[in-house]
Amino acid sequence: MMLVWVIYDISDDRTRSRVAKICKNYGLYRVQKSAFLGDLNRNESDSLALECESVIEDTDSVYVFPMCEDCFDKIKLIGTGFDRELVSGMTVTKFF
Q1: CA distance 61 to 63
Q2: What residues contact 36, with CB distance under 8 A and at least 6 apart?
Q3: From CA 16, how far away is CA 49, in angstroms rounded?
Q4: Per-residue pLDDT of the chain (96 residues; tens, 9 = 90+)
Q5: Under a CB-based contact definition with an 8 Å cutoff, are residues 39 and 88 in contact?
Q6: Which residues lie across from 36 on neighbouring strands?
Q7: CB of 65 within 8 A of CB of 5?
Q8: What is residue 96's predicted lDDT score, i.e. its pLDDT?
Q9: Is-contact 25 92, C-beta < 8 A?
Q10: How far apart are alpha carbons 23 and 18 in whole angstroms?
Q11: Which residues contact 18 (CB under 8 A, 6 or more apart)?
């Protein structure tokens, strides 16, 4: 398992909703309107990317970023953000 960020820029509401639904179906936690985070294995991450690719248009963008725990711990948050305790380490596994 690895932490995975999914961040997207999609102009069409229906397509954006479909991508959000795909992320939720993989058990990802919504941290902002167009940003999801959660634990996935490599196969799940690849499948999620393929599913997103199948629903977006050429002008849309979906980024799937794998992130190690050490890198996650080094995130600097400026302003209001998500609850890091909720989505970090063991808590992620328990939450999902």
Answers
A1: 7
A2: 5, 6, 7, 20, 23, 24, 28, 29, 30
A3: 14
A4: 899 999 999 999 999 999 999 999 999 999 889 999 999 999 999 999 999 999 999 999 999 999 988 888 888 878 776 666 655 554 444 444
A5: no
A6: 6, 30
A7: yes
A8: 40
A9: no
A10: 9
A11: 55
The token pair at 91 is 């808590």
Tokens of 55: 């629903």
Round to whole Å and give the CA distance between 27 and 48.
11
Q: Is residue 6 within 8 Å of residue 62, measured between CB atoms?
A: yes
d(CA 41, CA 57): 26
Tell me what pLDDT residue 85 has.
60
Residue appearing with tokens 């050490």: 70
CB 18 within 8 A of CB 55: yes
